[in-house]
């Protein structure tokens, strides 16, 4: 009884109700809420604390920013009906807030455009060394075509491209990056993609700041993992794969897309690559040490750098050879997709 009373006490304030209506649309930073509601950040923070204590909103720190999303209490059916009610959602104040929210969306899109413009030359220089990214993406999609992705973890999400590419096939997505700037960029790009495609990518994706050496997830939390052009930034790739195995459920799958071993030392000195690609032997050894079974590889030539794709799974038994006649259905699907 007290819990229900706390929820309705928290909502018995116009500002807090406005905040909840906005959070139904998208995750927002405290500063963005202050801008939309035209109130000071300290005042907004007091309202957020009350919503947080009632379980209506959750706070998440991302660098120097704090983001808000709906909390578990907001999922009560009666609250859903209230938030969707025309008298509430279409009220004059709610419509004014929606107009201000559109300005926040626009500001995020402009930030993303500035970032891409500033880094276009750098990215184009690396892309010119290997075959077009579209071909890499087609190969990745083919390899995971029949694989049930379930809850997908995208490590080093960057611009969120892997979320765009595989989001429709996943039940939910956790996208992790160590850079708050990149997470804000991904957030803006996913909003843009959702607007164009009409998908629900924003609602089904949780963006988190985190390090691939210490993933902010519980053991066995995800069904599938993607590391797209990420592992070469790791000083100790084997430690990253141990973490991947830890958060992966038994029979879960991992896709790693990266460069084959090369000698382009400028990528280390100018682009912070800690590793100059990977050999199949090294990858097989690290995967095995992490209790992951390599089930498929794909080599994509077409430039100075060769792109490799490795598919592995977390075995449910101690030993499982990739060419066994009795592979689990998920692994069989992977092998058929790559045929």
Average pLDDT rating:
87
Percent range of helical residues: 40-55%
User: Tell me about the biggest sheet?
Assistant: 7 strands, mixed
Radius of gyration: 22 Å
Question: What this model shows, in words?
Answer:
The structure is a single chain. With 339 residues, this protein is of the alpha/beta class. It is 49% helix and 19% strand. It has 15 helices and ten strands. It has helices at 2-11, 14-23, 30-37, 41-53, 77-84, 86-89, 92-127, 133-143, 161-166, 180-197, 201-204, 237-247, 266-271, 280-289, 329-338; strands at residues 28-29, 57-62, 65-70, 151-155, 172-177, 205-209, 222-228, 248-259, 292-300, 307-314. The strands form two sheets. It has a seven-stranded mixed beta sheet with strand order 6-5-4-7-8-10-9, with helices on both faces. Strand 2 and strand 3 form a beta hairpin. Helix 3 (30-37) crosses helix 4, helix 3 (30-37) crosses helix 7 and helix 7 packs across helix 10. Residues 319-339 have low confidence and may be disordered.
Topology readout:
Blueprint: H1 2-11, H2 14-23, E1 28-29, H3 30-37, H4 41-53, E2 57-62, E3 65-70, H5 77-84, H6 86-89, H7 92-127, H8 133-143, E4 151-155, H9 161-166, E5 172-177, H10 180-197, H11 201-204, E6 205-209, E7 222-228, H12 237-247, E8 248-259, H13 266-271, H14 280-289, E9 292-300, E10 307-314, H15 329-338
Parallel strand pairs: 4-5, 4-7, 5-6, 7-8
Antiparallel strand pairs: 1-3, 2-3, 8-10, 9-10
Helix pairs in contact: 3-4, 3-7, 7-10
